Amino acid sequence: MSTKDFQFEIFSRDGLARRGEISMPRGRVQTPAFMPVGTAGTVKAMYMDQVHDLGADIILGNTYHLMLRPGAERVARLGGLHEFARWPYPILTDSGGFQVMSLAALRKMSEKGVTFKSHIDGTQYELTPERSIEIQALLGSDIQMQLDECIALPAEEHEIERAMELSLRWAERSAIAFDKQQYKAGRAMFGIVQGGDIQDLRIRSAESLKQLKLKGYSIGGLAVGEPQDVMLSMLDITCPVLPEDKPRYLMGVGTPDDLLESVARGVDMFDCVMPTRAGRHGTAYTRYGKINLRNSRHAEDYRPLDEQSDCPATRDYSRAYLHHLVKSNEALGGMLLTWNNLSYYQDLMSGMRIAIEEAEFDQFRQSTKEIWERGDIKPLL
């Protein structure tokens, strides 16, 4: 089922938590939604069919990595990212700005954009708001992000304000570039609220972006070094300012606890590399909490991670076997744990959606946390 236009509908609320649906030509996204990160056209260690079967309606692709390799124009010639990666469902692409700030060498900011050298081979590139939107259009992205400047916290207030104001000017230019696209029907561009950990700047940013009348709004520049309570306080003051009838996307977040607390404050969409990266490094996320499969306590533990799970990686392989794979640096270990982790994250989002529909979100949030705290990783007797 799909629609010709980009639409967002809220079906039910429980407190500030929202249960809704984003409709696009390539499919529908149930919210609250977690988007697996497909940085370079692949969700690491996963087949795309697996990702969709776990319940993911949408994935994230990365402008920075794809512009460097294999190149946006090449992807376009090969049919776009959906065809290239064999993912026929919605794709959100980030603008590349965060990766330029965190990965690129010898970068130089200006009003026009940012010039930088590739972390791969040192080739020099220029990324402007217009070029970022052009790349995302070449990729065929369904949801495109404005170019912004994301700075790590803590930072001086004057520097946070400078970056926020620059991001607002870039948002206007990004919106103009998006409106000029030939094939924009059914697609959307989201603006990004910046302002670091300064409440007044967050409010100014959100109020200014609202004037652009975009189809969605993202909250950026969080989970970049600040404590969780600071992140949540920024959501407390930002979400009420954003339009009630537009999706809200918290970028690059996070832990299961982050997701629960953010949904409680009215956030609809998330992405994070945490579940895939943790899986490749031997950590499993389960409803009992995190399990470090490198720990020798699992060497003779015949139990699966969770015998009640519908995911084969979670249900059918013993902790002892997973421990062996991880300690032996076998690729299968990272594949199985990534499969498990993405399954857990999608189950968590599904549980939140059901809880909101049944007006039991707060109970779900508390019971989930209590199970994590209680845990189930005691060694066998």
Give the neighbour order of strands across the main sheet.
4-15-14-13-12-11-7-6-5
Roughly what is the average pLDDT, rounded to an integer? Answer: 95
Largest sheet: 9 strands, parallel
- Beta fraction: 15-25%
Give the second-level CATH assignment, the architecture of the largest domain. Alpha-Beta Barrel
CATH topology of the largest domain: TIM Barrel
CATH class of the largest domain: Alpha Beta
Q: DSSP helix count?
A: 15
How many structural domains can be distinguished in the coordinates?
2
Tell the overall outline: globular
Strand segment count = 17
Task: Describe the structure concisely for a colleague.
It is built from 15 helices and 17 strands. It has helices at 48-53, 63-68, 72-77, 81-85, 97-102, 129-139, 157-179, 199-210, 228-238, 256-263, 274-280, 312-315, 319-327, 331-357, 361-374; strands at 7-14, 17-24, 27-31, 33-35, 37-38, 59-62, 91-94, 105-109, 114-117, 124-127, 143-145, 188-193, 216-219, 248-250, 269-271, 283-286, 289-292.
